[in-house]
Write a structure and sequence with these properties.
alpha+beta; 3-stranded antiparallel sheet; two-stranded antiparallel sheet; 33% helix
Length: 79
């Protein structure tokens, strides 16, 4: 079995955070922005600029990592 890429790890973490408002024991609130790198939380804040600034201190490449917004899920209703 092939090891998951950093992108896959970030996407899995973001999906879990979106469903459960937590990742590896750390809780998040709706409206939080969470920066992930290799499946690890590296920054949390309330504005994209703040989170991006902290993230870029750790990883200067914008090609790596992922920033997601924590939101209360809204069900799709089709009638």
């Amino acid at each position: 079995m092939e090891a998951a890429s950093d992108r896959e790890l970030d996407e899995r973490a973001a999906e879990h955070i979106g469903r459960h408002f937590e990742w590896r024991g750390r809780r998040f609130e709706p409206g939080d922005l969470v920066a992930l790198l290799g499946g690890e939380v590296v920054a949390v804040g309330r504005t994209f600029e703040d989170v991006e600034r902290e993230f870029l201190k750790i990883e200067p490449s914008r090609r790596r990592g992922l920033i997601c917004r924590v939101e209360t899920p809204v069900p799709d209703v089709i009638r």
